[in-house]
Each structure stands twice: as C-alpha cells, then as structure tokens.
Amino acid sequence: MHSNPILPGFNPDPSIVSTPNGYYVVTSSFEYLPGLPVYHSLDLQSWSLIGHVATRAEQVQVANVPTPGGIWAPTLRYRDGVFYLIVTVFLGGRGCVVFTASDPAGPWSDGTVIDAVDGIDPDLAWDEDGTAYVTFARHPDAIQQVRVDLATGRSLERPRALWSGSGLYSPEGPHLYQRGGWWYLLAAEGGTDRGHAVTVARSRRPDGPFESAPHNPVLTAAGTGSPVQNTGHADFVELPDGGTAMVLLGVRPLGLGKSFSPLGRETFLTAVDWIDGWPHAQLPRVAGATPEDRGYDFSNGAGLEDPRWIGVRRLPAEFSAPTSKGLLLRGEGNAMGSPRPCFLAQRQRHHEMEFRAVIDVGSGTGGIAVRNAEDNWFGIEAAAEGHTVRITAHAVIAGLDRTWEATVPSGDVDLAVVASPPPSDFSAGAVGGDRIRLLVRPAGPAGSPEGILLAELDGRHWAFETAKAFTGRAFGVFAVDGEVLVRRLSYSGKD
Fold first, then answer.
1. Is 10 domain-assigned?
2. What's the pLDDT score for residue 256?
3. What span, in angstroms and rounded, lies between the C-alpha atoms of 259 and 36?
4. Average pLDDT over residues 73-96
5. Do 151 and 300 belong to one domain?
C-alpha cells in the first residue's frame, strides 16, 4: 500500500462500496458541515475527496446538536445504479435518515426520515425479494433490525432484537451481507477505546437467528503492540479477483507507551481471508500518510474550491466570502469556545505538521486554531490596537484557558502552528504527546524567519484519549468580531 491509513485525519466509521467506476467510502463527520465526506479510489490505494452527502444545512439539522452529537456512523450502499446513504443524526438532529444519489459526488436527496430506527449506526441491506432491512445499534441492548419502505420511511414491523454480540461490551456498528448461502452480520464491540474489536455472526436468513463465530473477535488490537489501536467499526468490500478487503477505524498513538493519538480515529484498509466459511482479518499495516505541501493564495480573489474546507455546525459560505484582497471571514461575536464559531477548517492529516496563515485584523479580531471540541483547542488570536497588533495564544483544556500575550507592529500578521512527534526513546519528552509550538511574526520583510515563540505545548492534552471528542484535530482560521481577511494559508505535513 502507498499509505495506510488510506484516509488520514479524523475519518471514523468508514463504509465502503464497489461499483463499476471504482470504490467509494463515506465516514462520520459529527458536528462539521458539509458533512459525510465521499472519497473515491480506483485501486483502494489512492483516494480523493469528491464531495459530501450533506451540503445543505436542512439535510441533517446539526445547528443545535451538542458535542459529541451530530452525524454518526453512516452506511453507504450501491444498488441498481443508485447510491444509498443511511445515517443517524444524533442528539437533536433529524434522527435516522436515508439519502440517495445517482452520482456519489452529489447532489444528494433531501433525505427520508425513518422514525422506527431509534438507535445509532444504521445499516442497509436487501433480501432476494428486494425488501430493505435496517439493522442498527441501541445501546445497551442487542443489535436491532426492522424492515422498512425506503420510499416513504415507513416501517413494515416493530424493531426486534437480532444479535446480542459475542459477549464483549456494547455491540454496535452492524453491517449485514449475503455471501455463499449465508448472511453475515459484522459488528463492533468493546467500546471505542483500546478494547475496540470487530466481531461476526452468521445465519441462513437476514433476520436470524445468528450464531457467533467461534474465533471472535475476528480482529482487535487490544493487548497488542500494534501501531494501530482501537481497531473496529469495519465494513467488507469484495474485490475483482474474488478476494475480500476490510475498511475499519483505528488510531495511531505516539510517544512512550503509545498513549496519545493526536489525529483521532482514521480509516485503514486490511485483508480478509475466508476459512471454513468464516472471515479472518489481519491487523492493518501502517505505511504512513502521503507527505503533503499545500498552499492557498486568497489575495487574488480565490474562493474555497478545495472540498476539504468545513465549518462547525454551519457551512463555510455562511461566514466567509472571496474578495480581491483576501478571503473575508465575518465575525459574529462567537469565540472558539462557542458551539458555532466562525471557524474555517480542515482535518489535520499528519503527525508532523506546519500550518501557517497570513491575516489582516485591521477591521476585526481573529486568528488560527486547532480544535477538537469547544472545550479542547489551542490557537492564536490577533486584534489591532492602535499602531500594534495584540497577540494572544490560547491553550484550552476542559474549558480552562491558559493564555500568553505579545505585541507586533500593525499590519498583516503571520501566525503558525508547528507540531512534531515526540522522541521514540526513553527521554523525558517521549512521555508526553507531540510537541506543539505557537508562533507569530509580522508578515513581509519585517518578520524574522522563525518569529516569536508564544508557547510550547504538550500535545497529549489535545489527543483522542484526553479530549474524548469523537472527531480529531481540525486546523483553520477564525473570526470573532468584525472582518478578518485571510491573505494566504499553507499546510505542510509528513509522518
């Protein structure tokens, strides 16, 4: 593989389909919009983001969902030339919704709500007669199932218990497949942390009864030294050569003891073997994300053509607009700790990362940030004060905000976040997470190459294990008040 994870940065709960035009994967997006990113590949190795399912706020209605609610655990399926995406918008959104499209790049339908599905992680499968089955999780109960009319969203029966799992904690993430006269039910168990596992059962009928595989779990990193941990929530895909592959989520922890995962849950690919009618999976190998250097020059009127831009509970177009002087961000008085900040972001995709933005805050207050949640982020805020610009670095952990201040001459400012992995030896620095430096310098010739070091942080406090957000780090620019112009922005990353 050229890289594994195949989708670096927070891309949990992957679901995959094979079509005549290649492979497509959709992952969870929680409170971010546009939601449900759609990735495409011809060879399962090189992937590109081609669009999103939820490109209109009314499709999912996440404006008021609390963290960690939002768009959870989709299932993507392809049948008779139509793409189906079923998902739960949890904790105050639309509930269980089915979207359809003829082109996975979009546009997708407004969605049909299935009221009978009162749980999470819905799956979609059809029997030989074309009857649609929705299988879903209802913690702490057994995995549930209900037959539905997809055109209307009406249930054809009451939801019923299907399988209680293999005996591990919290059966969830079900996917149902027909293969060789059997119906296989793939599930996730053991919670979403180090005990996460993939389990399987089978039946001669889609509605059971299901027998558990004798070798469950079929895949788990629990108790191993694998560089990929928290492995689970998998989905099968059949290959042209008759083989089977599996996409699944996992984290890449760093440091001594491999304790802290800065990027959150990512999507990995691994092989599946069939022995005596049961699947056997291998822990995914790690090849590292492809190095990346990407720059955006907004000073020439360029907009947000890159589909990777996202906002928190709102679409980026609600608070940003291209101008001839730069990308304009309009502040509304919402700081980064608010549920709906004016924060234009992308997923952090590499352990070693430099993110830099040149901004003008002459008419407003704003800066750059790296966010896990409202109460877990760090960044740099700038505000004009007479002939200077006041700079405030923030490190927010569980709502506690530590700050550092500096001033630079008035004019455009160059703000930067530089992250590097901890050493792998037994030195003191290896005990923590990645090393994060927050830097500022005046833009242009007056700025020194390095700039002013505002703060140096231990990244363990902004890792999946400590932030407890279901997402991962998202980096970007924000506006609090007034108008902030983003002249240029760059991202450089490698593993």
1. no
2. 81
3. 28
4. 97
5. no
